[in-house]
């Protein structure tokens, strides 16, 4: 029964992810995302890069090499963050699928 409860919980999380329809902003509040050290580290780096970029943008124009470099760094960190969040979400989906399959096999063996 514990396995079925876990499967049900995972299926609910998987369904929730499906309704989020790849909206990374909404998925950032999921526990697995919040507890990821790498994601939190990327968020911190992104916040620092954003602040640095905003400050630099006040002093130099859009064509300045430092502006372009800072903008590229912000974009790169945003992409890494999205990619890491998608990996966590993929892991949740895989875990739910595995749990469903395991419960099906258990039901057949008991049946």
What is the compact description of this entry?
This protein has helices at 2-20, 24-27, 31-34, 37-59, 65-110. By secondary structure, the protein is mainly α.
Walkthrough of the structure:
The protein is mainly alpha-helical and 111 residues long. It has one domain. 86% of the residues lie in helices and 0% in strands. The longest helix has 46 residues. It starts with a helix and ends with a helix.
Order of helices and strands: HHHHH
Rg computed from alpha carbons, rounded to a whole number of angstroms: 20 Å
Beta-strand percentage range:
under 5%
- Taken together, the total number of domains comes to 1
- How many beta-strand segments? 0
Mean pLDDT: 83
How many helices in DSSP terms?
5
Q: How is the main sheet built?
A: none
Please write out the topology:
Blueprint: H1 2-20, H2 24-27, H3 31-34, H4 37-59, H5 65-110
Helix pairs in contact: 1-5, 4-5
Give the key terms:
rod-shaped, 111 residues, mainly alpha
